[in-house]
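note to self — DONT lose this again. spent like an hour looking for the file last time. sequence + predicted structure for the chain T wanted, 200 res
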Amino acid sequence: MANGRAARIELIDRSTGRRLSAAQTWLAIAVMTFGTSFMSLVVVSLVPVLPEIAAHFGRSGGDLARFIQVAPAVGTIVGAPVSGWMVERLGARRFLVWAFILFAVFGAAGLFLDDITLLIASRFVLGVAAAGIVTAALYLVSEYFDGEARARILGYQSAVGGAAAMAIGPVAGLVADAGGWHAPFSLYLLGFPFALITLF
C-alpha cells in the first residue's frame, strides 16, 4: 500500500505482510515504472539495422528478415494471456524475474546467431518475455498501489515509456555504427540487471 506523497511512499509485500525497506521500495517502483518500456525496446531497437540485416542474409533470407519485427508481435499476442495465468500461479515477482532473464537471453541471442530462422524464433520468445514483463509490472502496480498513488505510477509508466521509445532508436543507431548490425541486440541485456533488481 502506498500513502499520499512520493517522498513518504511505503510498500507492504501482501504475500508476507512485511513492510519493504526504503531501498526495496524505490527498487520496486523502478521495476514497475520501467517495466513497460521493455516493449518499446523490442519494437524500436532493431529499426536502424533492418536494411543491413536484410542485405546480410541476401536473396535467400532477405524476405524472411521482415519477420524479425513481426515475430515479437506474435510472441506478445501469445504471451500476454499465458503471462496472466502464470502470474497468478507463480506470483508476480518470481514470474517477473524469469521474464527478465528470458528477455535478456533470447533478445541478446542476435549477438551470435547468424541463421535467419533461429533469429526469428528467438525474437518470438523475446515477444513472449516482453508480454510477461509488462503483465507482471502492471500486476505489481495494482498489488502495491491504490487510488491516486496507482494513477501516479501509471502516469510515470507512460512518461518513461514514451521517453524510452524516442531514445532507443538513436541509441541503437549509435551502437550499430560502432559494432555492426549484431550490436543493437546487446541492448536486450538490460534484462539481467532488472532481474537482479526484482530479486531484491
